């Protein structure tokens, strides 16, 4: 039997000693206020057993991790029609890259880069009655936690400096791949990115992807086939131009965010989340990537 608690503690204390060369994201000014020293890990096993270490119950802005949850909601609402508006290929480019979008006539490479997530936000805006409220309720339902909320200050901070996302949304609009107004779609997108969650809540929210679409309380939210496809997209696109590196080092489907979070999972076995705000040059969490590499190497638990 693996002693998960001891393994997490060893990983945490060994990485605490590492010279953390990462930088906290400050292109969204509000994110720059978070301490670089925060570091938490939470593990949720499919059996119900769970383990925590460090700052695992401190909330942070989930940023791009939210793209998986919005994708899940949109897939649930419109099914395979989704793939007419967004592709499922890795981009091999940074999350905010624009030139491929122009080259490929306004069809984003995948739903986990910014342009793809903006199209998904547009789908949700068209299909939800009260988009922000309904989406937050979906996240609360998956997580079984009513305390989850948007951080309006972070959303506003991103809106003020969100020139790149405005450029992406305007390009999408020009190519006819946005049905709603740019301002409304981005308001939704900035809010979904601002959602505050801790590592434990993230492992709960992502439980559906490890459990064939059923949440912790065994309510079926997605089909097993939808979960297969979302996990495939996480594996191939979840870390942008470092997706290959994450698959190589860690070997799990997962998703990062510029708030410093990562959540990853092994189907039928566990979900795991890390939080360490300093990012590597590709915008992925510096310590979190290493922690997950150590975890899957030590436990020999990966999809491969
Ligand atoms: N990689 C990320 O977490 C990026 C999300 C961020 N809200 C942005 O659009 O720039």
UniProtKB/TrEMBL annotation:
InterPro entries: Beta-lactam/transpept-like, Glutaminase. It catalyses: L-glutamine + H2O = L-glutamate + NH4(+). Keywords: Acetylation, Hydrolase. GO terms for biological process: glutamate biosynthetic process; L-glutamine catabolic process. Gene3D superfamilies: DD-peptidase/beta-lactamase superfamily. Its EC number is 3.5.1.2. Substrate binds at residues 64, 114, 158, 165, 189, 240, 258. One of its GO terms (molecular function) is glutaminase activity. Homotetramer. Belongs to the glutaminase family. This is Glutaminase.
